[in-house]
UniProtKB/TrEMBL annotation:
ATP binds at residues 119-120, 144, 212. HAMAP family: TMP_kinase. Its EC number is 2.7.4.16. Mg(2+) 4 binds at residues 28, 43, 73. NCBIfam families: thiL (TIGR01379). Mg(2+) 5 binds at residue 213. Pathway: Cofactor biosynthesis; thiamine diphosphate biosynthesis; thiamine diphosphate from thiamine phosphate: step 1/1. Residues 26-136 form the PurM-like N-terminal domain. One of its GO terms (molecular function) is thiamine-phosphate kinase activity. It comes from Permianibacter aggregans. This is Thiamine-monophosphate kinase. InterPro entries: PurM-like_C_dom, PurM-like_C_sf, PurM-like_N, PurM-like_N_sf, ThiL-like.
Length: 323
């Protein structure tokens, strides 16, 4: 049976010479060289089988998603992703599983020129802890505490697809067309971190968050940190053709607000900059949809949910651990 260090050597030590990595895998710690004049941005996420992904999820999808959810956090900060560490706990070292896992891990890393610089492997229930490192020039990070009254609230991409994919993965829902199932399952298992979109938005945006737990929960994080409220018109939420064809309107809205796992960006942009921001994203083939605005905080942070201007009482909260 393969030991810890042979697993690392066989599947994870694929270092390529880079000027920003003084010392990578193989020592007690890594040494990295920060780009001149940039700040270090760090994020970490734990992904547990049965909680963050269904038990039947394949190793390739687990690896790919573990990278992208962390890069999504860096994108929400406007950071350029650069390095990553991985701690992997697994019941037994299955070589076929590890081969597929590691190949897909490096495929995801390569998409954004990110290097694996260290980590750990151990025996235990299937669980991953990923820490991602990025850099940003001082004063350019997009922060949750930077929303201003009057800002346009907007989102990239479409919302709710991953939530519908989870229903399919758990056999709670059968879609009318088999190709639709493949699309939403891909959105669930292989989300795309909006790194390029974030870099394009840094010039126009000071406040952002990635949508991991559903719009209702994630937007509230911005409101609490920025001490403000929001008005959202659910009639403006962007949906894919799959959701438009497969779901009734209220179900689509509920998936967008509460299902999570979309990993789109929710941003707050000054009204006079919004058109330019939309144009910048169109230039890279990405939509940016206005869904509401930041309002004054009168009785504590809250979201005024509307539908075509009228009160919408059916809004649901998003995901939160231990609740």
């Amino acid at each position: 049976m393969a030991g810890e260090f042979s697993i690392i050597a066989q599947f994870f030590d694929r270092a390529e010479a880079r000027a920003d990595i003084e010392l990578g895998i193989g020592d007690d710690a890594a040494i990295i060289n920060l780009p001149a004049g940039e700040q270090l941005v760090i994020t970490t996420d734990t992904l547990n089988a049965g909680i963050h992904f269904p038990d039947a999820t394949g190793p390739g999808d687990i690896a790919y998603k573990s990278v992208m959810v962390n890069l999504s956090d860096l994108a929400a900060m406007g950071a350029t992703p650069r390095w990553l560490t991985l701690s992997l706990s697994m019941p037994e070292p299955n070589h076929d599983w590890l081969r597929v896992f590691s190949d897909n891990l490096f495929q995801a890393l390569k998409m954004h020129q990110v290097a694996l610089i260290g980590g750990d492997t151990t025996r235990g229930p299937l669980s991953l802890c990923v820490t991602a490192f990025g850099t940003v020039k001082p004063g350019t990070a997009m922060r949750r505490d930077s929303a201003q009254i009057g800002d346009v609230i907007a989102v990239t991409g479409t919302l709710g697809d991953a939530g519908l994919g989870l229903q399919c993965a758990l056999h709670q829902r059968a879609l009318n067309r088999i190709e639709h199932t493949g699309i939403v399952m891909s959105r669930l298992n292989r989300p795309q971190a909006r790194v390029n979109e974030a870099i394009a938005l840094r010039e126009y945006c000071e406040c952002a968050i990635d949508l991991s737990d559903g719009l209702a929960s994630d937007l509230m994080h911005i409101l609490k940190r920025s001490d403000c409220s929001a008005s959202i018109d659910v009639a403006n939420l962007p949906f894919s053709e799959v959701l438009l064809q497969e779901c009734e309107e209220d179900e689509r809205i509920a998936l967008a607000l509460s299902a999570g796992d979309d990993y789109e960006l929710c941003v707050c942009i000054a009204p006079e900059k919004f058109e330019a921001a939309q144009k910048a994203l169109r230039a890279i083939g990405s939509p940016l949809t206005a869904i509401g605005s930041i309002t004054a905080n009168e009785e504590g942070p809250e979201i005024d949910w509307r539908k075509s201007g009228h009160p919408y009482p059916n809004a649901k909260r998003g995901w939160e651990h231990f609740v």
